[in-house]
Amino acid sequence: MNMRMLTAIGVALAVFLSAAAVESTYVSSSGSATAPYDSWEKAAHDLATAAAETDVGGTVRIAPGTYAVSETIVLDKALTVRSADPETDAVAPSTTILDGGSACGIVSVRAAVSFVGLTFSHGSATGNGGALCVTAYAGGGGCENCIFSGNVVAAPATVALAGGRYALAVAGCSADNSNPVFRNCVFEGNALEPAEAEGVTAVLCEGVLLGGKGESTVEHCTFVSPKADSDYAVAQFGSTQKALTVKDSVFELEDGEAWKRFVFADQPSTVTVANCQVR
Q1: Cβ-count burial of 214 within 10 angstroms (0-12 exposed, 13-18 middle, 19+ buried)?
Q2: Tens-level pLDDT at each residue, the chain (279 residues)
Q3: Under 8 Å CB-to-CB from 139, ≥6 apart: which residues?
Q4: pTM for the model
Q5: Which residues are paired to 69 by β-bridges?
Q6: DSSP letters spanning 78-142
Q7: How many whole angstroms separate alpha carbon 81 and alpha carbon 272?
Q8: Residue 38 to residue 114: CA distance in whole angstroms
Q9: d(C-alpha 260, C-alpha 215), whole Å
């Protein structure tokens, strides 16, 4: 093998390595924003940039802080996205905030993404996903120790769509093996806006709207005060979902009669509610 060939191989290998994704990336406002963002010192300044450099199945760690989201972040590969204290690696959900500025939905997910220890705040959308919209989990994913606060979702104004099902956090999965879990999450201070379409009432969900063909679980979550007869905390939609289990959760409702609407189901036989408190 001559020197010219060795040089060519070396150049090709260097290009490959520089383009390869890494297992862990970091987000921090104090990072230098140096690709591939594989340390706190070189951390990216936003989730979308770091996620693009993260290997499938890898982890994006986000330092405490408020991160403005001016355009919906699209995640299309399996990842774990979590808050992390740079010193201890502990999650910090109340101080690690993705803020939509009341201008857009915050995250759109098209793969098995798990969110851990984050606040989704001031997201806004007409239709689904003021905070989080999932079109495919493909095997897992979900949210753990997350807070959804100050978000808005509005039903579309057209009569054809105004009577649909819409929510702040949505997991609508087309794959049979999609089994998202929402665990230890809090939904509070969010707003729901029905459409002004005569004779049509939407089902609006302040919490999680789950559907598709898989089995979904909501556990150890807290939902605070849906305000109107068409507002729910958890909803199941469609006719293809295998099962939705809601357990060990708390529904804090201002109206004493509101217990009637804390869970909505298109297919009641698929929904199990166990060991929950309504107060």
Answers
A1: buried
A2: 554 554 444 444 444 444 567 999 999 999 999 999 999 999 999 999 999 999 999 999 999 999 999 999 999 999 999 999 999 999 999 999 999 999 998 998 888 899 999 999 998 887 767 788 776 555 668 899 999 998 888 777 664 554 566 666 665 544 555 678 899 999 888 877 776 655 556 666 777 777 667 788 999 999 886 555 457 788 887 777 778 899 999 988 665 555 456 788 888 888 999 999 987
A3: 78, 112, 175, 177, 178, 179
A4: 0.86
A5: none
A6: -EEEEE--TTT----GGGEEEE-TTTS-SEEE-S-EEEES-EEES-EEESS-SSEEES--SS--E
A7: 29
A8: 19
A9: 24
Rounded Cα distance between 183 and 150, Å, is: 20
User: Other C-beta atoms within 10 Å of 135: how many?
Assistant: 18
> Which residue reads 């802080």 in tokens?
65
The two three-digit tokens of residue 250, written as one number: 């708390």
CB 270 within 8 A of CB 244: yes
Residue corresponding to tokens 């520089």: 18
